[in-house]
Amino acid sequence: MQLAALAESAGASARPPEDPVTPPVVLSHVEPPFPPAERAAGTHGVVVLVVTVGKDGVVGTVEVLQSAGERLDRAAVKAVRAWTFAPARRGAVDVASRVRIPFRFETAPPVPRLAASSPQPPTGETPTSVTAEGDPDHGPAVVRVTGKPTDRGASDFHIDVGELANLPRANAAELVKLAPGFVITNEGGAEFGQHTYLRGFSADEGQDFELSVDGVPINESGNIDTNGFADQHFIIPELVSSLHVLEGPYDPRQGNYAVAGSVDYQLGLDRRGLTGRYTVGSFGTNRAVLMWGPPGESAHTFVAMELYSTNGFGENRDGRHASAMGQYEGRFGEHGVWRVSGTAYVNEFHSAGELREDDVAAGRIGFYDTYDTRQGGESQRYSAAGTLETRAGPFTLRQQVFVIQRYMDLREDFTGFLLDPIRGDLADTHSTETSFGARGVARTRLTALGLPQELEAGYFARGDHTDGTIQRLAVLTNAPYATDGSLESILGDVGVYGDATLRVSKWASLRGGPRVDLFTFDVTDRVASTRTDAATVAAMPRAALLLGPFDGFTLSSSYGVGERTLDPQSVADGTHPLFATVQSGEAGVAYVRSFESLLVDARSDFFDTTISQDTIFSETAGRTIPTKGTIRTGWAGALRLTGRFLDESASVTLTRCIYDDTRLPIPFTPTSVIRNDTVAFAPLPWRLRGREIKGTLGGSVTYVGPRPLPYAQTSDPIFTIDATASLRWWAFELALSAMNLLGSRYRLGEFNYASDWHTQSPAPTTPERTFSAGAPRSMYLTLAVTLGGGS
Question: How far apart are CA 114 and CA 418, in angstroms?
Fold first, then answer.
């Protein structure tokens, strides 16, 4: 696509008349997403940008010449920074130029002609259509961005982190709490994989929740501790620009871990130049982040490194990690883009584990202490990925390949001396995994029934080689005295899917299609000296019906079938089906409107999910084990307000979770989750050295209602408040934040089971309330400096 533009080199007035300038040519571009509030409101607008294109064809400075409102301006600027050009030419010489690019946002039906789309994660939005109008003799082209619904229902969230990135968060995993219903805990230690609760599912460290980074999977198939284990600590939070969260298995692109839903972290570094951040805080916490976004490159080109250490808020809670992430995006031919990315991560930590409530109440042990100082672990993760997206005739093609190497060593003691009164019950888990995979997709558009229709077909292929061992260590010598499990597994997953958007009218569309996966298992049980080969095919249809928008309201109904494959130990035992079937449905409504400078996105949906065979955590086995079928029903409401000086996210989720035979409540799952995040930001009424000072003030409120426990007990609720304040001037930023501002002494996780820690004589072995302590009040000071970013 040739861009008809006004090209002005720095020495235009001195050029001889016989030396004409040829305008730059667009080689690849990213389409600005139509902000949903503006789309629903039918808003039209033109954003005119003046863009400097270097003689190497990369975008330099970007200025807003004509504004159509903050939201549309931001979408246009962010998109054009990712464009690549063949540079302007003066005769036969490449020269720098300035081009004027108007973006016309309108809600007319898309035209048939397509341009190359930007790379999208497998669970991301379908690209909008882009066309060029005008001719070289009559001024600049108009790029028309046509909005269209891309949701799978009211529980499909495309979350721009925005100003809410200023709120204090322990790690990138906590960003998912911007979607309703999420509870993130770390009972195994602050550096251990996050335990996720959502819509009544206790997804452990990832077994029921599909997680990825720009399409590259995080879940570890065959991890002997938790099948689907997903440690997100390697993600540097400052690199997360947005998230695609889908609560429920309603998209054919989702795989077998999307029982409760899926999250794709989408990375980008808008701030160009070199940025350094250093944080010091309570309990000897130190964190350093260095990020480089080369000026002139797109936001998808960056390199970053994070170093973190803490003494922890109590006994045996120290931890440290290092993470590096890098990505480069370049152009491929006339209509394509490519990306290569890599990550490296190492950590080491100690864990306090769980405490018996009666011991704490009697003063035999402190609230933040531990029974066994040997608990803790270390892990490593390395990955590399490549992505290519281009055009082939009427099709947009996308291909991604990845390789991941993972190592984990974890020592946990839940029961003390219950299983072995002499040598103790400390379990030492070793797990290694190598994963190779690829995914590809082909998309096209056509016109039928007088309306634009969309078709997509794709595949996913993944192979895993895992090796895991669980041993018991003697309390005095740390020597292994028993092996609970020792497995070597070769796992395969090959899936194909079809996805279509059928528009039967301007206000009604049906989205979805089938997905079929072949799962293979080759499991060697070294303890039992057996080898088990198995294979199974799972069919997973998904569909969503969307009606609207009607004056900002969109009604939706979604249905999906998912399959949860069991862990290799259960496959080796041969006593359970190879997978459990999940059926989920929801009905909801979304309201998206713009009121002057305020954008409103409000959603409400009712959901119902059944699973034929569930899992529950066993303290004595030290891992999740199969149990009977379950039912989860509930309601979720969410609100996002984005204004000129305000960014607000609030949500409420209510869930009823029961076993399908006894109708008894499922243990440990929250029945209510309330969350509110608010950030106010504005220029302050004074300037320093002629430069503006921007102030930010924000806070988060979290309430987690009582959770059912075994033996007809319930946990205590959790209520915390976090707060932050910051000042930004020129290249500098100073922020002060507090987590658990009120200093609440709360129990992060609560359980009810038998244990014996020899703290009493005779030692009780009946079930007793146990808990892992939540962090007390903590304060952090951060200084950030950005250099060399240009204007």
Answer: 66
The pTM assigned to this predicted structure is 0.82
The DSSP line for 272-315 is -EEEEEEEEEGGGEEEEEEEEE-TTS-TT-EEEEEEEEE--SST
CA distances from 594 to 31, 79, 244 (A): 21, 21, 22
| 57-82 tens-digit pLDDT | 778 778 777 777 777 878 888 788 77
Q: Which residues of 265-275 are buried (b: 16+ CB within 10 A; e: fewer)?
A: bbbbbeebbbb
Terminal CA-to-CA distance of the chain, rounded, Å? Answer: 28
**What's the pLDDT tens digit per position in 317-375?**
999 999 999 999 988 877 788 999 999 999 999 999 999 999 999 999 999 999 999 99
The neighbouring-strand residues paired with 720 are 702
**pLDDT, tens only, 725-757:** 999 999 999 999 999 999 999 999 888 888 999
DSSP string, 619-672: TTTTEEEE---EEEEEEEEEEEEE-SSEEEEEEEEEEEEEETTT-PBPTT--SE
Which domains, ranges and CATH numbers included, belong to the chain? 12-146 (3.30.2420.10), 157-787 (2.40.170.20)
Query: What is the token pair recorded at 273?
Result: 């130049």
| Under 8 Å between Cβ of 274 and 787 | yes
**Local confidence band at 493 (pLDDT 50, 70, 90 cut-offs):** very high
CA–CA gap between residue 188 and residue 209 (Å, rounded): 18
**In angstroms, how far apart are the furthest CA atoms of the chain?**
102
SS (H, E, C) 489-557: EEEEEEEEEEEEEEEEECCEEEEEECEEEEEEEEEEECCCCEEEEEEEEEECCEEEEEEEEECCEEEEE
Pairing of strands 355-356, 319-332: unpaired
What 701-705 contacts at long range (C-beta under 8 Å, 24+ apart), as own/partner pairs, is 701/674, 701/675, 701/676, 702/177, 702/674, 702/675, 703/672, 703/673, 703/674, 703/675, 704/183, 704/670, 704/672, 704/673, 705/670, 705/671, 705/672, 705/673
DSSP summary character for residue 107: -
Residue of 210, 188, 228, 196 whose CA lies nearest to 568: 228
C-alpha dihedral sign at 479, 485, 490, 492? negative
pLDDT at 31 over 90: no
Q: Is 351 exposed, middle or buried (0-12, 13-18, 19+ CB in 10 A)?
A: buried
- The 3-class SS string of 36-97 reads HHHHHCCCCEEEEEEEEECCCCEEEEEEEEECCCHHHHHHHHHHHCCCEEECEEECCEEECE
Structure tokens at 42: 């039918």
Q: What are phi and psi of 282, to 5 degrees?
A: -60, 150
Cβ partners under 8 Å of residue 477, min gap 6:
none
Alpha carbon 118 to chain centroid distance?
A: 19
CA distance 300 to 238: 13
Structural tokens at position 647: 């960014």
Task: Render 678-707 in DSSP notation, one character per residue.
Answer: EEEEEEEEEEETTEEEEEEEEEEEEEE---
* Other Cβ atoms closer than 10 A to 80: 21
Kindly calculate the radius of gyration of the chain based on its CA atoms and give it in whole angstroms.
27
C-alpha of 567 from chain center: 24
* Per-residue DSSP letter, 174: G
88 token code pair: 């302007």
What is the 8-class DSSP label of residue 9? -
Which residues pair with residue 539 across a beta bridge? 516
Q: How far apart are the C-alpha atoms of 189 and 115, rounded to whole Å? A: 48
Burial class (CB within 10 angstroms; exposed 0-12, middle 13-18, buried 19+) of 666: buried
Would you state the structure tokens that stand for residue 661, as one six-digit string?
């035979």
Burial of residue 449 (CB within 10 Å: 0-12, 13-18, 19+) is exposed
Residue 75 carries which side chain, given as an amino acid letter?
A: A
